[in-house]
Design brief:
Blueprint: H1 2-27, E1 33-35, E2 56-62, H2 66-84, E3 90-97, H3 101-112, E4 120-125, H4 127-136, E5 148-155, E6 161-162, E7 178-179, H5 183-214
Parallel strand pairs: 2-3, 3-4
Antiparallel strand pairs: 1-6, 2-5, 5-6, 5-7
Helix pairs in contact: 2-5
Length: 215
């Protein structure tokens, strides 16, 4: 019996673990599309040097209250940006009121002391444009009076808002955005969901390469 148990632990348990892991990968290998046809950021930016097209964008609306803005910006920077900024297609876009540009330039200087900000994009525009862009995401949220949202959003390469439809902490299960004030949400949810998109991109690339070899 002892030999049987040892053999079982050597062969059967790893097999069970593999099956469990495979089911987990299957379940989370697709991040749902919650909104299509989001307005491209280039349509509201006077500079015109940023776009959602062909990029994986994490988008935040930081508003005019510097206390809320700085806390959210530094959380995103430390937990998300520093992990992914060198990955292909990745960018982090902050949408900001144009009348606060000088104040934000000081914050960006502070940020750049300890961060390579090459894939941080700060887009300044008027209040109406900020609202228009935010509404195109078609979420249940609203910007506050300072044009701030506590949530960061995933916009994929085809201008689609991605999120969850079975989030256990959200009423109705749909997770449209990720609370920037919550370190655990950024670490446990936003990071996981970005990883899923990169997993999808990898699998898609592998399929294309196989097709080329077959031809």
């Amino acid at each position: 019996m002892k030999k049987v148990w040892v053999l079982g632990s050597l062969f059967i348990l790893p097999l069970v673990f593999y099956i469990f892991l495979s089911k987990g990968i299957y379940k989370y290998s697709n991040l749902p599309i919650l909104t299509e046809n989001v307005i491209d950021i280039e349509e509201i930016s006077s500079a015109g040097n940023s776009s959602f097209k062909d990029k994986l964008s994490i988008v935040c609306f930081l508003g005019s209250d510097m206390n809320s803005a700085k806390a959210s910006l530094f959380n995103l920077n430390q937990i998300i940006y520093k992990r992914y900024y060198e990955k292909p297609l990745f960018q982090l876009i902050a949408v900001l009121p144009e009348d606060k540009k000088s104040e934000y330039e000081e914050v960006i200087k502070e940020l750049s002391v300890f961060t390579n900000t090459k894939n941080w994009h700060f887009v300044y525009t008027n209040n109406e444009n900020i609202q228009t862009l935010f509404h195109s995401f078609k979420t249940p949220f609203k910007l506050n009076d300072n044009l701030y949202s506590e949530n960061a959003f995933i916009i994929d390469m085809e201008l689609r808002l991605r999120g969850r439809k079975d989030d256990e902490d959200t009423k109705g299960g749909k997770l449209y955005g990720y609370n920037m004030r919550s370190v655990s949400t950024l670490k446990d949810k936003l990071k996981d969901d970005i990883n899923i998109i990169y997993y999808q991109l990898k699998k898609s690339r592998e399929k294309k390469e196989r097709r080329k070899r077959e031809i």
